[in-house]
Amino acid sequence: MVGERKDPYRTFRFLLEIDGIVQAGFSEVTIPDASSEPVEYREGSEPPTVRKLPGLNKYGNVTLKWGITDSMELYEKWWKLVEECDMEKARKNVAIILMDCEGNPAARWEFVEAWPSKYDAPDLNATGTDVAIETLEIVHEGMKRVKP
């Protein structure tokens, strides 16, 4: 008999944890890619084939998007620290938690030494009806996927 069916998780239910900052409700969170740059190497006594060695690990940025409200948590308690060059306080640990349909943690990505590198205020349009969206781009120095 085949094992229990496991459907893939959906992308529409997630949480975000940021050390010391309470911000509920994001409309979109982009989980970045991770890569290891290959370094080509060959010694003269080896066959004429280049070896591939792992080089520096690189991580993309996390992007947060949310509908603007009267909350100033991310702007005042995080972005302002970067503007004031208080990097000791600005660096935080961040976690993105994907939830299953029942609301239980299903997958978790953790980011270390994270800090906001870009803040984007919403574009406004007097004839539009869209929700005003703020965006924060976060850089970090490492990510890992862990079991929740």
TrEMBL record:
- Which one Pfam family would you cite for this protein? Phage_T4_gp19
**InterPro entries referenced in this protein's UniProt entry, alphabetically:** CHP02241, Phage_T4_Gp19
GO-annotated molecular function: structural molecule activity
Q: What is this protein called?
A: Phage tail protein
Organism, by scientific name, is: Candidatus Methanophagaceae archaeon ANME-1 ERB6
The lineage, from the top, is: Archaea, Methanobacteriati, Methanobacteriota, Stenosarchaea group, Methanomicrobia
